[in-house]
Design a protein that fits this description.
Helix content: 55-70%
Distance between the termini: 53 Å
Shape: extended
Structural class: mainly alpha
Mean pLDDT: 79
Strand content: under 5%
Order of helices and strands: HHEEHHHHHHHEEHH
Number of strands: 4
Strand order of the largest sheet: 1-2
Low-confidence stretches: 38-44, 398-423
Length: 423
């Protein structure tokens, strides 16, 4: 049912909504990355047309992206406060809609846009005047350019993080993304372990009496060890270690611990975590798609909804088999006959009128089952009667009781033989 609603009703509207997001992402990347690096690094060599294009694209971002996001978050925050839908974290009220990481990233992107607008180099150069329109190389613009580029990079990271929502288009890709989120903790553990080992070796190397320039200070030692881990050190840079045997032992200890132990430990952890969580993540991916369906159905136009119901054709009876007409109100899904082999027909069929006011016929049990229940009932009744006679005989006296018990036993035996003959 979920796949039917997704493919026939929600998929197109969801894709159209993400198309606007992809458009704003393209505009943002063109304004901040592509056109800014298309010409020379010096702004004086940038053409006037390029400056106008960059300013126009940034204006589109500020109006259509930042404006929409500010309106969205302002409305959600006010609505959460009005409905008292708040989560308290150390006496700090947080709107409940921020429990999803996508909403948190959208809020960070909105704040990032506001900061970028406040330190926009083009606006500062326009305020200070200049010989070129939309120039960014003025003194006021240059003072803001470093901070502006930093927040621009943060905005691009937020944009591409939100792009992972498109993984819902494929259940397999969505499950893979969820698995990556689950096993990220294993990578973080190994990363902290690597940092701990780097600090140990760096401080130990600096404590040794050695003349290696790569280990002349804590900062240089840490940088050189990281470069060794990433394979960024040339072979001739290890030649000086021939004259420093103790330092060489420290380096060998570091390489064995990092490159052999921790790296293989990470591979083993990721393998076990992936195998243990992938099956569950497929279910979570389907639930994630179901959540999007629930959120998107109220936004579907009534005409589109009526068309969807007509396409389902729920009023047409479904065939149980070829020529075997069944009930209406369902969706028929065909499968190979050899997939689920049934030797007994599981459909109970009743003849007669189909009026809703008519009583539904009671389901009858087989003759063999009725005979078994009747025989068991007779045996239980006879046993209860004989036990009652035995209790009455025991009250009359010991001698009489013995005789009654003997007679009762013979009667019980004879009755049991009679029952056995009847069976």
């Amino acid at each position: 049912v979920t796949n039917t609603v997704w493919n026939q009703l929600i998929f197109r509207s969801f894709l159209l909504g993400k198309a606007w997001f992809l458009f704003t992402l393209t505009v943002f990347c063109c304004a901040q990355s592509i056109f800014m690096r298309h010409g020379d690094d010096e702004d004086l060599h940038t053409s006037q047309a390029q400056l106008i294009a960059v300013a126009g694209l940034r204006l589109v971002n500020y109006i259509f992206t930042m404006g929409v996001q500010v309106r969205h978050h302002t409305g959600r925050i006010v609505q959460s406060i009005r409905d008292k839908e708040l989560i308290w974290y150390k006496r700090i009220p947080i709107p409940t809609y921020l429990h999803r990481w996508q909403e948190v990233v959208r809020l960070l992107l909105t704040v990032d846009f506001l900061i970028m607008l406040a330190i926009e180099p083009v606006l500062h150069c326009l305020a200070s005047g200049g010989d070129r329109l939309f120039n960014q190389s003025c003194e006021a613009g240059q003072s803001m350019k470093t901070a502006y580029c930093f927040f621009s990079a943060i905005g691009i990271i937020c944009y591409f993080a939100l792009l992972t929502d498109l993984s819902v288009l494929s259940t397999r890709v969505s499950a893979f993304v969820l698995v990556c989120q689950r096993v990220a903790s294993e990578v973080i553990l190994v990363l902290f372990s690597s940092i701990f080992v780097v600090l140990i070796v760096a401080f130990a190397a600096c404590a040794l009496e050695q003349d290696d320039p790569h280990f002349n200070g804590i900062g240089k030692s840490i940088l050189f060890l990281v470069k060794m881990t990433l394979g960024m050190v040339a072979g001739d840079e290890y030649d000086i270690l021939e004259h420093e045997p103790i330092l060489l032992v420290c380096i060998l200890f570091y390489m064995v611990l990092i490159s052999i132990f921790l790296l293989n430990m990470l591979v083993a952890q990721l393998t076990c975590a992936y195998q243990g969580t992938y099956d569950d993540m497929v279910g979570y991916a389907r639930l994630n798609r179901g959540r999007i369906i629930v959120e998107s159905v109220p936004k579907v136009k009534p005409a589109r909804w009526e068309q969807f119901k007509r396409e389902l054709d729920l009023d047409t009876p479904i065939e149980f088999g070829e020529g075997d007409i069944g009930l209406a109100g369902g969706i028929q899904v065909l499968e190979p006959a050899s997939l689920n082999i049934m030797t007994v027909d599981m459909i109970k069929r009743f003849g007669g009128t189909t009026s809703p006011s008519a009583q539904w016929p009671a389901e009858e049990t087989s003759k063999e089952e009725r005979d078994k229940y009747t025989h068991l009932d007779r045996v239980v009744d006879k046993a209860l009667k004989k036990m009652g006679r035995m209790v009455k005989g025991s009250v009359a006296g010991s001698s009489t009781a013995n005789g009654s018990q003997a007679g009762g036993g013979s009667v019980l035996n004879s009755s049991s033989d009679a029952d056995a003959s009847e069976a």
